[in-house]
Amino acid sequence: MRGVATIGLKGETEFLRRYNNRTLNRKKKIKTIKFKGIHLFFIIILLFFIGFSALKASQFFLSWEKLNVKSFKLVNSSKIEFKNLEKILKNYNGNILMVNFTDLRRELLKFKIVKDVSLTRVLPSTIVIKFLLREPIFQFKSRGEYNIIDRNGIVLYRKSEKQNGLITIKDLKKEEFEKITSYLPELTEIRDLVDYISFVKPYGVKLKLKRINEIFYPGEKDYIRKINYFLRLKRIIPLKENKIKYVDLRFKDRIYFEYDEGVIN
Fold first, then answer.
1. Is 173 in contact with 186 (CB distance < 8 Å)?
2. Is 88 helix (H, G, I), strand (E, B) or coil?
3. Angle subtended by helix axes 82-89 and 101-108, to nearest 10
4. For residue 216, how many C-alpha atoms fall within 13 Å in the half-sphere facing its CB?
5. By C-alpha distance, which of 155, 156, 149 is closest to 131?
6. pLDDT tens, residue by residue, 110-156
7. Which of 23, 86, 150, 194 shows a CA-CA span of 20 to 30 A to 62?
8. Residues 6+ apart with CB under 8 A from 182
9. DSSP code string of 195-208
């Protein structure tokens, strides 16, 4: 009987222990859930107040008069038509934080002389516009005006008079300008000395210099060396007795002269 009683007592003790543990675990879970719930509630309240404050702050800044655009600082804009530029900028005088830079940049790039443009907000009320302009290289006369173009043949603007420092193109169609762009490094070195250039098959570049009567076919490279060599040769050899019209410098070991009467080697 004692053995049976002992077994029963141990079984009841084990049952009570397990029951007590389950009860304690249940209470811990309930406390944990309540604790997390309270924290979650306060977090939601905090996020609500943060969002509400951000909304009010944004409404304030977007309606604050001090943030309205009052000026545009233009960098490197001297060659852009100011009247047309002013018309565009008048449409972007609202709140500086709301100015659509994508649209503004797209409109500014419509100026052919503008290669690229960067926009920066300077709070509270200034927008800095920095232009990267295409470089004028050539000019050609059409309908009484000089068209100023870049290395890609894009007409940047027009002038009534010939411009200093630009290479004048003659007897060449606009769509043929690409024929001379590959010679630009050579031409740039002597651009201040050039009267005009053209392109003639099969000779290539046709070059007329200022204050020099002869017209040159200088080939593809070494323009300065070749022309200087001819000018030295002209001082040594009495070539002035004959009227030279063209000088062909394309070949390494010889020079061809073309006179009014014909061609002489």
1. no
2. helix
3. 160
4. 28
5. 156
6. 999 999 999 999 988 999 999 999 999 999 888 889 999 888 888 89
7. 86
8. none
9. EEEEEETTTEEEEE
